[in-house]
Amino acid sequence: MTTTVTLTGTGVPFPSADRAGPGVLVSHEDVHLQIDAGRSTLMRLAQTGINPHQLSALLLTHLHSDHVSDVADLAHTRWVQDHLHGTGPLPVVAADGHAPAFVQRVLAANAYDVEVRMRHVQDGPPQVTGHWFQLPDVPAEVWRSPCGRVAVEAVRVRHEPVEQAVGYRITTPDGVIVVSGDTRVCDEIAALSAGADIVVHEACRSTALAEFARNTPFETIFSYHADTVALGEMAKHVGVPHLVLTHLIPEPTTPDQVAAYEADVRRGGFAGRISVGHDLMTLTLPPETIPGDQQ
Q1: The whole model's pTM is what?
Q2: Where in the numbering of this chain does the Metallo-beta-lactamase domain appear (predicted)?
Q3: Which residue pairs, CB below 8 angstroms and at least 24 apart, start in 119-127?
């Protein structure tokens, strides 16, 4: 048995030719969990060999547009393919509040297309199965696979002023993976990360952006994203063995810029393994089987 962690997108709201919108795919045998669905998630999943009908659940960390812009494509394409696979509604896991209404609006956006397809192929309209949970202040289980082998915990993270933002902890028979979503470094994500094998965490190089952002509205982003030095301090304190950086602000486009991310984290005191994420980077658990970061 193995568990794979694939970065389906490592980008930010600004478009990039090389980085899709934020997303992580965690797979254990036939259980496939997609965490967030930023732009081009569907295409990245196709590159991994996973189709929407194979998803066991879609987990949303929060409703910033760059994390959810491909929810419509995932849900609608799964519905279009349903007459071939019979997999039924897409399970969506998210904090209760804004998410249920958002998902329903997503489904309603293609009303005309739905009407036309139902005349010829589809038996009913697209649907999701909502697994809505109350925002937990300490890690709490919010979903478990029907087979019982894969469990998901969530905790509130600090991405204010965004409401109802969470990070997820996925436990499989092979190990534990944490996906931070968007958050500043905080006690909640530290608690979620304790004992994890891989922590996939957003990263913002505040030092690289400080002069550019000074006295502009962009300066406020430092208050709700994870500074790379502070992230290194947290990872050291918690004892994270493997830290994977994603949602990279700013986008590194040269080897020196990639190295600068690692250097920042090292400045925080972290001595464990660091992977500066790129799209389709794939990691494998259990740790002893990891041959290295794979394309």
Answers
A1: 0.93
A2: 36-247
A3: 121/83, 122/79, 122/80, 122/82, 122/83, 123/83, 125/79, 126/75, 126/76, 126/78, 126/79, 126/89, 127/79, 127/88, 127/89, 127/90
Residue 238 and residue 194 in contact, taking contact as beta carbons nearer than 8 Å: yes
Reported as a single tens digit per residue, the pLDDT across 152-172 is 999 999 898 988 999 999 999
Query: Is 50 within 8 Å of 28 (Cβ atoms)?
Result: no
Say yes or no: domain 3-289 is CATH 3.30.930.10.
no
For residues 216 and 159, give the distance between their C-alpha atoms in angstroms, rounded to a whole number: 19
Return the higher-pLDDT residue of 48 and 223: 48
Active site residue 66: yes
* Token duo for residue 168: 């997820």
Closest to 213 measured CA to CA, from 205, 199, 134, 283:
205
